Amino acid sequence: MKHGQLALVTGALGAIGREVVKRLDAQGYELILVDRNAAELSELSQLCRHAQAIVVDQTDQQSVSQLAARIRDDLGHVNLAFINAGVVIVGDLLAVDEVDIDVQLDVNLRSAIHLIKACAHNMAEAGSGHIIATVSMGGIVALKGSATYAASKFGLRGFLTSIRGELRSKNIHVSGIFPSGVDTAMLQYEASNGGSPLNFVNTPQTVQAVGDVFERAIKGRKLEYYLPYSDSVSGRIVSCFPWCIRYLEPVMEWLGERGRKKYLARLQANQSGAKSEGARS
To answer: What backbone phi and psi angles, to 5 degrees, belong to 36?
Structure first.
């Protein structure tokens, strides 16, 4: 049990965030939960044994700066930081507007860098810590229709790789989690709004599977963790030869469209089942 140890979770209200919060709470961590919906965040914190809710909109630079200052100066030793907030807005470059571009860069990259830096300051003063961030396979293989998202995740991967060497002497560990498509509200949005079919070449992962990888990262402290590992092998090979993507895309998109249709049909069936169950009750 981790009684007395403090963990920070951003994006706490998302499906992955909630799964990790549940696991950290069960392990006895004291929790600092960060997200932008005050009412839902309060409800989540009340389900935990010892949790503090901090409402922050990560598209607001002043709010992020204020949180960073609290992490550095006011919260005590943060033993574990899970930088998890993320957003994707699908669409070809010429179709998305500047606001959509900025939102993704702000949440996925800019605010993540500032909060990771604040956590690193906090941990360096205490002499230990572990920073884990949700990246994405979109940070290894760039998909058309989500260029800004890919740019933000490629940037986050590079940032984590760089600081790992810088922070090693401070006894601060750095890890990134790289899942393929995960069955969350974000993926459901992509499935219904023109997101890349390559997200559906394989069956989407569960949030429980991501939670398992998160726990492996806590114990193993390696730089990168992939889910599933098979996707990471092909993804890293393709990323070494990005010119080959144009030749692979037609087949992969055909497979992905089949997977998308199956995924949407399963969602519809689950929703219909839930409605029927609700009617009977």
So the answer is: -105, -15
What pTM does this model have?
Answer: 0.87
Query: Is the CB of residue 120 less than 8 Å from the CB of residue 174?
Result: no
State pLDDT tens for residues 57-85: 999 999 999 999 999 999 999 999 999 99
> What's the rounded Cα separation, in Å, for the pair 114 and 195?
28
Residues 236-240 have a mean pLDDT of 77
Report pLDDT for 274.
57
What is the C-alpha separation between 7 and 26, in angstroms, rounded? 12
Exposed / middle / buried, residue 104 (Cβ in 10 Å: 0-12, 13-18, 19+): buried
The identity of residue 210, as a single letter, is: V
Residue 115 structure tokens: 């909060």
Domain boundaries, the chain: 6-280
* Distance (Å, whole) CA 20 – CA 207: 9
Closest to 128 measured CA to CA, from 162, 72, 79, 75: 79
Match domain 6-280 to its CATH number in 3.40.190.10, 3.40.50.12780, 3.40.50.720, 1.20.120.530.
Answer: 3.40.50.720
